[in-house]
Amino acid sequence: MKIQIDRSDKTPLYKQIAGQIQAQITSGEIPEGFQFPSERQLADALGVNRTTVLNAYKELKADGLIASHVGSGTVAVRNQNAEPVILSHRKDPMWEHLFSDHMKNQDSFDINKYLEVANQRDVISFAAGIASFELPPVQAFAGIEKELLGSGNGLLVSPVAGFSSLRRVMSSYMQKRSCFCQPSEIMITSGAQQGIDLIARAFVNPGDIVLIEEPSFFPAIRSFRSMGAKLMAVPMEEDGMDVDILEQLLTRYRPKLIYTMPAYHNPCGVTMSIPKRVRLLELAGRYGIPVLEDDPYSELNYEGPPVTPLKSMDKSGYVVYLSTFSKTIYPGLRLGWICADKKLISRLSGIRQLMDLHSGCISQQIAERFIVSGELKKYLTLIRREYRERRDIMTDALSRYAPAGLTWNRPEGGYYLWCRLPEGLSSDILVTRAAERGVAILPGTPSYLTPYKGECYIRLNYTFPPRDRIAEGIRILCEVIEELASARPEYTLCPDSEINPIL
Amino acid sequence: MKIQIDRSDKTPLYKQIAGQIQAQITSGEIPEGFQFPSERQLADALGVNRTTVLNAYKELKADGLIASHVGSGTVAVRNQNAEPVILSHRKDPMWEHLFSDHMKNQDSFDINKYLEVANQRDVISFAAGIASFELPPVQAFAGIEKELLGSGNGLLVSPVAGFSSLRRVMSSYMQKRSCFCQPSEIMITSGAQQGIDLIARAFVNPGDIVLIEEPSFFPAIRSFRSMGAKLMAVPMEEDGMDVDILEQLLTRYRPKLIYTMPAYHNPCGVTMSIPKRVRLLELAGRYGIPVLEDDPYSELNYEGPPVTPLKSMDKSGYVVYLSTFSKTIYPGLRLGWICADKKLISRLSGIRQLMDLHSGCISQQIAERFIVSGELKKYLTLIRREYRERRDIMTDALSRYAPAGLTWNRPEGGYYLWCRLPEGLSSDILVTRAAERGVAILPGTPSYLTPYKGECYIRLNYTFPPRDRIAEGIRILCEVIEELASARPEYTLCPDSEINPIL
């Protein structure tokens, strides 16, 4: 028997003692019938109070692990059936052998390595896709505590698809955006990511084809891949996906789903034109293919009116609209919504119940208050102005510092600039070099299905970095690009070079 | 062109007009080149202001759907490529043809039909598995608003596995329960349901075998089935699962996972004995099978000390411990946690990121405050006393009113009584009859893998119904059972009757 007391541990001493004895009995290290020292003996040996040992023994007796008999003292009791644990089985569990294809289908791209850099002190981060830290919409909370403390109502549990009152609010919210839907056509989700996951799960069997814009939102690529989908790329053009290629793919293959981000696309900032929308919807209706419209950014418009959702023109009913409060209120709420045919919403609720039952009650109430009180509208006005200015600070800085060959767009809304690097430069190398100089960016590669295809792009977020550090970050980034470009070919990629046999 | 104005609708009139014209252009009802009435003509025809029509036309122009030319007035513009929408395609989407096996693997049991009854006014509900409505732990909120409004910190975003501070708090919480784990071995989940879903997703491929106690927590059965698992039943005995049968199944098949609820089992109230725990762990270690320990109730002990988790005796590292705040704080928080090997936690984070990124920031902060302040401990003392009393009210009422042949257990903890009906009576029929009399209960069938096997059981929850209505509900329920039993064989099941050929 071996017992080690750790007085710096907050666990009560008697628990420490009992726990260690229990472990040793269970493992067979203390054999059945083992004669324990008396309470006083053990207390003296360990330098603890006698009551401490008494309590430890009491607990072990209650668990049926030891027994005291007058005359024979305290002995270990063991289940007859239990064989001693064989030490060779105490190796680390072989998790990788046990994992499902879901786990294995995950690609190896680890976004965290980029975001970890971004989270370091003093790093200027253009990598994340999150809102400004400096403008928390704290008005959303004002009064909520009083309300909740007063009644406690609405804390306990919510329907799977969300509180009826919030679904009503969201349906009239969608109506203001020209989507004439009913509350029964709304499901509240725990963010847009859950919406993508839910739709992937509802429609995609391993091997099913999903059509996706290239480049696209990379967590969507990962979600579909994790479900075993075979992804096929529809190239992006200046005014949205190439609908001619879309039609070819629809004719040649039998895709299960089309995934699109028609407004202020992440990462490339493009908005789909009306003619392309008409064509996409006509094709989806003709072939009977659901269209997942991911629309997190359409209300963050900096020029012209907000982009109207594709869903507003949906005659066939195949458009599944998805949006989130993560970009307009804040991501920590974990709240988004789906707007779709009510028959689909009802079937999706069946799966949703198995995923997380429903979205958090407090988040739902905060979002509802925030909309109904008019605070969201005010807050949108505030961040639209702020983000427009940050975008302009970034494009101005690029105009000032950009080396030859670096090009970028000027998105009319959303969160990101999409930059093309001077020819031959690799974004993966640039990411590392920029991080060393304290600037975090996202490489283009994960947004592409085709390996290396995104190497000449980087995505820059302008909403998160403090406005007074944007120009500085761009200056440093441009210096790094310049250095790498002039050091060519050492640090560059030659995608067009000959392929040599591997010997 | 057809336009209908709805003045009771909150949508601005110009939006209503623009929306309807847009829809008609898109669908082809308004053909390309269609000559629109002048603003004044349309305003007169609709009985609206001229500015209203002006604004509608402005919007349509911005969308590229109409154009005005001096001399030719306002005309509809249409994309050349778009073919008119063919009306036969406007049928309802064929969702059922499109759904994945995930969706199809869902069994047809619809818990909602039982819970809907339970939600009706004046119904005494023994059906739900939720906490008392009358004892909201509102102290959890006191002060949180001030904190959040003050800083706004911790609102924005959380790490995938949860805030570090909460993971630290949960690891010391687990240590107090004899599980000596590190914060890196904790993942915060959006409730225990998400934990089950996450584990199922990480380990189960279609066709994989999962061993599960019979009866068991029915949403777990549904989760594993939705992933395509082949479930095999390990029968429950008075002191936990039959470990001899477990061993046979482990030897004969190659299961991927063992699912167990070792403390105050839902639905049958049983706690697994120490010898069975030792044997289960030894077998899991020897065969290298992960054990999902679902432990929502162990701290709701009404007699004796709280049951120590299986995880505390886990030498092999294969135990994946799962618990939730839904039963101790409240379900609307959507907060639970997994405690497992840190290598597994890290791999699970990869999937979790695709599911919902992370659990809600406010819920995490509320739970952390509730534990650290000592409020959870106080609240547990309060609800333990309250629920023990409610359990006793229920068992006393059963002793008073029960007809011959009705038997029940007296669980030492948890939420449920598990009752066996008089022989030949069907719980599915009883559920309907009891609902008609204003009492909601849960039938035994969904908790069993084998069809009809649960027909002779019902589950009664005593935590949710108000204490002064429990005895009344039991009285009514017993009357209904008595009536059905005396009306036999009309309303009863004859599971042992001969099977006749279907002609």
Automatic annotation (TrEMBL), chains A, B:
The keyword Transcription regulation is annotated on this UniProt entry: yes
PROSITE patterns: HTH_GNTR (PS50949)
SUPFAM superfamilies in the record: PLP-dependent transferases, Winged helix' DNA-binding domain
Record keywords: Aminotransferase, DNA-binding, Pyridoxal phosphate, Transcription, Transcription regulation, Transferase
PANTHER family referenced in this protein's UniProt entry, alphabetically: HTH-TYPE TRANSCRIPTIONAL REGULATORY PROTEIN GABR (PTHR46577), TRANSCRIPTIONAL REGULATORY PROTEIN (PTHR46577:SF2)
UniProt record similarity statement: In the C-terminal section; belongs to the class-I pyridoxal-phosphate-dependent aminotransferase family. Belongs to the class-I pyridoxal-phosphate-dependent aminotransferase family.
Protein name: DNA-binding transcriptional MocR family regulator
Residue ranges occupied by any HTH gntR-type domain in the UniProt entry: 11-79
InterPro entries per UniProt: Aminotransferase_I/II_large, HTH_trans_reg/aminotransferase, PyrdxlP-dep_Trfase, PyrdxlP-dep_Trfase_major, PyrdxlP-dep_Trfase_small, Tscrpt_reg_HTH_GntR, WH-like_DNA-bd_sf, WH_DNA-bd_sf
